[in-house]
C-alpha cells in the first residue's frame, strides 16, 4: 500500500489528468503526449525548482499528507468507573465533587525556575515567514490572553528590512523584533512566556544579546531543527534589492542575485522570486555545552532547545546533552511538521514521524532516569490539532512530556478571526459565519467572557486573538473531559496506563499495552475472587 500519492497536491497546485495513477510514481496511468497539465512533473518541466515549494507563499500554510503506518489514532483513552486522582486533599471524591469543570489543566516546565501555562499547549515557531509577520498581532495577543507560551522563530532579526548592525555585525536595532516582543507583552499576565529562537545566523547576529539587553529577556531557545525539514528555514523575496541585501547579510540566496545573468532574467520576468535559506547546523557536545555556558554568563536564567525529526542518535544527543546542560525544556518536533514554505517532498519523506519519535523519546528518558540522570521537561510537536491528541501525547510520554507544541492548528483561528473582522467591515459575511449572527458578540462564543475581563481594552484585542482564545477554550474543555473520564483531575496524574493500543503494531512501537491485554491481570484477579 502506498502511504501517499506523489506527483499531485493542492499544496503545489498540481493535479492528475487521469482518474487512475501509478501508485508509486503518481504518474497518470495513461500519460498523454499533448496533455495541457498539470501534475508536478508537467509543471516542473516549466518552472523547475519552484515546484518544490508549496504556494502561493505567504498566503497558505502547508501540512504534509503522508499517511504513516502508525499514528495517535491507533491509541484509545482508557475510561474508568472508579477513582479520582489529583483532587485537592480536602475534597472527598464523589459524584458531586469529581466533575469535569474542576479539572486543572495548568502545566509547568523548567529545570529550577518553572514557567506556568494555563493549558498544556503552546505555539509552534512563528519566525520569518510572511504568514507569521502579517498575522503577528493576532497570534501574539491570542497566546498572551490564553496564558500559553509563544515561540518567536528563527531569522526575525536577520530579515528585518530596518535591521541595523553595529561595527561587529551584531544587531544594534531590529524594529520588527521589538514589535513582536512588545505586542506579546502588552497582554501578558504571568502565564506562558515568549521564546526567541536562535539558529546559526541568529547566533552570528547576536540575537540573544539583543533580546537580553534591549528587552531584559531571561529565556532563550536554541534551535537544532524541526519536523518539516532537515535543512535551514526558507522564505521567498520578490525584489532583487531585497535578495541582494539578504545575501550581503550572510544568508544563502538562490538563484544568486549577484550574478549578472540572474539579475537580467529576474528583470525580464523569467522568474519572480528568490529563495533565502538558512544554514545547516552542526552539533557536538563540547560546542553545545560551551554555548549554553556562554548564554548563562550573558545573563540568561533559562535556556530551551527545539530539535527536529532527526535520527535516534540526534534525539539521544538532545536528551543527554540537554540533561547535562540543565535545559528548561526540549521541544521535539516529529515529521511531518511545517507551517510555512518547507520543501514539499521533504515534508512528506524526511524524518521520524511524531508517534515513533515520542516512543523513542520515552524509551531514552526511561534509560537515562534509571541511570540516575534527570531529564529536562519535554514538549512534543508535529501534527497535533485536537484535545485527544494532546491527551495522548501527554499520557504516552508521561511523566516527561509536559506540553504539546501546536503549529498550524493555533495559527488557523488567528487567521479566521482576522478575516471575520474584515468580512464584517465589508458587510460580506459568508453564510458559514452569518448563521451564528452578524455581530462579534454573536459570532465569537467567548467574546463576552473576554470583554468582562478586559473591559475597555477589548478595542486593542484583534479578532484573530479572540479566535485563538476561543479555540484554546475548546481544547481546554475537551482535555478536561478526557481527564475526568480517565479519573485524572491534574495533569501530573495522567500516565501511560490511561492509554491502550488498538493494533499490535502500535503496541510494539509505543510499548502501550494492546487493547486485549490492557488491565488483563487486574480483571482476572476480580474474576478469580
Question: What does this protein structure show overall?
Answer:
With 529 residues, the chain is an alpha/beta fold. Helix content is 38%, strand content 12%. The strands form five sheets. Strands 4-16-15-14-13-9-8-5 form an eight-stranded parallel sheet. Strands 10-12-11 form a three-stranded antiparallel sheet, with helices on one face. A two-stranded antiparallel ribbon has the order 1-17. Strand 13 (302-307), helix 10 and strand 14 form a beta-alpha-beta unit. It is globular, with a radius of gyration of 24 Å. The model has no long low-confidence stretch (mean pLDDT 94).
Topology overview:
Layout lengths: L39 H8 L27 E3 L29 E3 L5 E3 L3 E3 L6 H5 L1 H11 L3 E3 L11 E2 L5 E3 L1 H12 L7 E5 L1 H6 L1 H9 L3 E5 L10 E4 L2 H9 L3 E3 L5 H8 L6 E4 L7 H14 L3 E6 L4 H14 L3 E5 L10 H6 L4 H17 L7 E4 L5 H10 L4 E6 L1 H19 L4 H4 L5 H4 L3 H8 L8 H23 L13 E3 L2 H7 L9 H8 L2
Parallel strand pairs: 4-16, 5-8, 8-9, 9-13, 13-14, 14-15, 15-16
Antiparallel strand pairs: 1-17, 2-3, 6-7, 10-12, 11-12
Helix pairs in contact: 3-4, 3-18, 9-10, 10-12, 13-18, 14-18
Amino acid at each position: 500500500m502506498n502511504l501517499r500519492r506523489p506527483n499531485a497536491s493542492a499544496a503545489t497546485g498540481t493535479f492528475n489528468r487521469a482518474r487512475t495513477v501509478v501508485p508509486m510514481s503518481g504518474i497518470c496511468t495513461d500519460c498523454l503526449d499533448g496533455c495541457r497539465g498539470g501534475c508536478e512533473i508537467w509543471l516542473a518541466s516549466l518552472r523547475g525548482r519552484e515546484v518544490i515549494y508549496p504556494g502561493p507563499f505567504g498566503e497558505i500554510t502547508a501540512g504534509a499528507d503522508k499517511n504513516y503506518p502508525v499514528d495517535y489514532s491507533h491509541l484509545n483513552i482508557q475510561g474508568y468507573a472508579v477513582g479520582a486522582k489529583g483532587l485537592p486533599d480536602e475534597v472527598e471524591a464523589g459524584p458531586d465533587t469529581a466533575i469535569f469543570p474542576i479539572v486543572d489543566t495548568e502545566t509547568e516546565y523548567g529545570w529550577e525556575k518553572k514557567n506556568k501555562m494555563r493549558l498544556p499547549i503552546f505555539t509552534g515557531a512563528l519566525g520569518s515567514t510572511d504568514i507569521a509577520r502579517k498575522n503577528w498581532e493576532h497570534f501574539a495577543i491570542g497566546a498572551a490572553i490564553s496564558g500559553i507560551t509563544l515561540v518567536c522563530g528563527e531569522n526575525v532579526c536577520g530579515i528585518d528590512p530596518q535591521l541595523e548592525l553595529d561595527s561587529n555585525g551584531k544587531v544594534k536595532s531590529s524594529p520588527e523584533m521589538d514589535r513582536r516582543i512588545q505586542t506579546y507583552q502588552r497582554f501578558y499576565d504571568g502565564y506562558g512566556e515568549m521564546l526567541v529562537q536562535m539558529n546559526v545566523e541568529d547566533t552570528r547576529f547576536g540575537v540573544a544579546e539583543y533580546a537580553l539587553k534591549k528587552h531584559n529577556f531571561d529565556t532563550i531557545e536554541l534551535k537544532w531543527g524541526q519536523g518539516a525539514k532537515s535543512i535551514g528555514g526558507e522564505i521567498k523575496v520578490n525584489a532583487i534589492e531585497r535578495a541582494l541585501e539578504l545575501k550581503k547579510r550572510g544568508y544563502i540566496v538562490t538563484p544568486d542575485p549577484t550574478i549578472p545573468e540572474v539579475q537580467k532574467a529576474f528583470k525580464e520576468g523569467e522568474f519572480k522570486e528568490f529563495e533565502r535559506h538558512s544554514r545547516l547546523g552542526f552539533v557536538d557536545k563540547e560546542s553545545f555545552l560551551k554555548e549554553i555556558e556562554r548564554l548563562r554568563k550573558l545573563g540568561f536564567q533559562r535556556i530551551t532547545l527545539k530539535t527536529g525529526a532527526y535520527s535516534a542518535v540526534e534525539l539521544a544527543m538532545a536528551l543527554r546533552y540537554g540533561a547535562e546542560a540543565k535545559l528548561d525544556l526540549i521541544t521535539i518536533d516529529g515529521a511531518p511538521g511545517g507551517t510555512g514554505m518547507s520543501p514539499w517532498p521533504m515534508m512528506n519523506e524526511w524524518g521520524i514521524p511524531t508517534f515513533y519519535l515520542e516512543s523513542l523519546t520515552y524509551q531514552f528518558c526511561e534509560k537515562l532516569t534509571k541511570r540516575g540522570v534527570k531529564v529536562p521537561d519535554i514538549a512534543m510537536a508535529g501534527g497535533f490539532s485536537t484535545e485527544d491528541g494532546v491527551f495522548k501525547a501527554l499520557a504516552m510520554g508521561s511523566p516527561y512530556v509536559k506540553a504539546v507544541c501546536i503549529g498550524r492548528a493555533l495559527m488557523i483561528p488567528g487567521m479566521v478571526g482576522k478575516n471575520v473582522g474584515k468580512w464584517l467591515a465589508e458587510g460580506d459575511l459568508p453564510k458559514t459565519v452569518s448563521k451564528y449572527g452578524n455581530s462579534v458578540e454573536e459570532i465569537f462564543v467567548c467574546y463576552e467572557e473576554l470583554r468582562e475581563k478586559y473591559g475597555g481594552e477589548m478595542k486593542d484585542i484583534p479578532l484573530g486573538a479572540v479566535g485563538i482564545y476561543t479555540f484554546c477554550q475548546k481544547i481546554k474543555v475537551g482535555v478536561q473531559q478526557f481527564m475526568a473520564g480517565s479519573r485524572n483531575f491534574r495533569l501530573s496524574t495522567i500516565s501511560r496506563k490511561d492509554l491502550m493500543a488498538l493494533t499490535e503494531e502500535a503496541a510494539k512501537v509505543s510499548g502501550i499495552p494492546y487493547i486485549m491485554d490492557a488491565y488483563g491481570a487486574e480483571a482476572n484477579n476480580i474474576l478469580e475472587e
